Each structure stands twice: as C-alpha cells, then as structure tokens.
Please model this.
Amino acid sequence: MPVNKAARVRFEIIDECLRNTLHKWSKRNLLDVVNKKLEEKCGNNTTISLSQIRNDLNDMQAEYGAPINTVKEGTSVYYIYEDINFSINKLPLEEEDVLRLREVVDIMQQIKGFTIADEIEGIVQRLEHKIKLRSNEKMPVIAFENPPTVLGSDFLGDLYNSIIKKQVLKITYKHFYASESYQIIFSPYFLKEYNNRWFLFGWSDKNKRVENLALDRISDIRVTNGVFKSNESFDSINYFKNIIGVTQINNSVVDQIELLFSKTRSPYITTKRIHESQKIIKEYKNGKILIGLSLIINKELITQILSFGEDVEVKKPEKLRLEIKDRLEGALKQYE
Model:
C-alpha cells in the first residue's frame, strides 16, 4: 500500500530516533519526539497518539522491511533496529518501482506540451541504467483523446513551472473577437483542461480579480520580476464543484436542473454521467429517464444540452428551458 506524505514524515522521524543507539526508545519517548518534530515542521494541531506510533512501527516493518525489535527491561519495552546500519532512506531501488515510474511517464507524455514528462523521462532512463533494466520497445496500451493540434499547448510546461515557482508573468493575449492583442500581468494558480482545450486560472493585475485565460489565445509568455499575488480566494475544488467547463459568472447560484432523456439516449446518460451531482429522479416504462443535476447555468452546460438534440427536454428550471428553446428555434430558422 502506498505511503502518504504525512506518514512518510513520521516514519523519517522514527527512523532517525531508532538509528540513535545512545538513547532507549519506548513508544512514549518516540511519541514525544515525533510530536515535537511535527509541531516544528507543520505547526499546531498535528499531534498524534500512542496508538498511531504503534501503527507506524508496524507499517514501517510492512512497507520498508524495517528490522524493528523489542527489548524488555523490567516492565519497560524499548524499540531498536536489529541492523544498526538500516535506514528507510537507504533502501535500494527495486525494479518494480522503476517499471511503475516508466508507466507513469509513458502516460504523461501523451499530454502534448507537458514538458515535465520529458524531464522525468531522463531521470527514469538513468534509473533504468543504474539497475541495468532494459527498456523494452512495446506498443502503447493506453491512449487519451488528443486533437491533431492544440494551440497554446506548447506553453503548458512553462506555465506549470511558473505556478510551482510562483512567478509573475507578462502574457500576450487576444480574445476571439478582438482585433488586437494586449498584455496582462498575471499571477498563475491553476491549469485546467476541458474539451481538449487548456485554461490558465490566476490573478489579473489589471482587473484585480481571478480570471481564466484560454491557452490557445496566448501568443507569448514572459517571466517578470513582479511580486506574486498569493492565492487567497481561488479554490479549484469548490470552483469546479457545481459547473461544467470553466465558466462561472460572479454571484451565480446553483440551480436544480431536471432533464428528460429519450429511450435511445438513456443508457448513455446513465453510464456516462453529465456531472457528479447527477441522480436519477424517475425511470419510465417507455424507457425514458428523468435526471436531476445541481449546477450553475453557464455556456458550457447550454452547449452540452444542445449537443443531445432531440434526445433531451429541459423540464426545470423554466429559465433554462426557455434558453434552450430559443437556441433551437434560432437553429431551425437556418433551414427555412
């Protein structure tokens, strides 16, 4: 079972203790040191219990093969490394570990423009050479949908690094319907892919708010010496929780939406859900289904509904029903 980051921090503290043979380590001693170190590293509210120390000692044996023995002195029990040279930080790299890394890199390299995968490729090659593991040429066994050309994807690697390094960018940008490009001073926070397009979320110095920029409208990116605006308001999990796509209008509210799908479309909607909030309200004898969604109405949702054509009817809310009706009537006029 993979070890999470918090557990790894505790394991390293315990490992450091057990390597110190000048001290006798009971569970209570280990607990005191671990809690002290955690407070120094992570701040308050990070203390653990004696039962967690017991679990950690067992997990270190299971995950790392740590040679932990117990020594009894009267009523006291102490923990030691049977091999005084052992450390979880000295474990040799296993062939299976490198194979898993290779698989991850092969998958990441399918994301066009994500140059960090190429950087990791070099690391994996060195590891393969170190343990004399021959990289077999083989056909790929997994593939993502990738359009032939995605404008702006060349910026992915640089933007990712700028987010990690908290670099302020000068971005040359042009809206679809604008006649000229303009420059934005931007503190980047987050990258999001939707419908084969990439979007960058961050703080616009000009408009003093969090905005999103489509990468295919960016023509140039330059790192500046500006002061990075810390992310104090954009929470990616909550932002995308109640929307389809990337657009969220200020002060928008979540609507309870009901869609009625035809018999032919119903199986596809139940197996490929529109959104995680989707639930089946009613199944009809004629094969139709009525589903409910909790979503903010935006242009991506409207486009999604229109893509279902005659297979869907908006039942609620009325404002969305009228919007779809107007769009369909407008489309019908194209054929008159």
Notes: The first helix runs from residue 5 to 19. Residues 203 and 210 are 4 Å apart (CA to CA). Residues 5-90 form a domain with the Arc Repressor Mutant, subunit A fold (CATH 1.10.10.10).
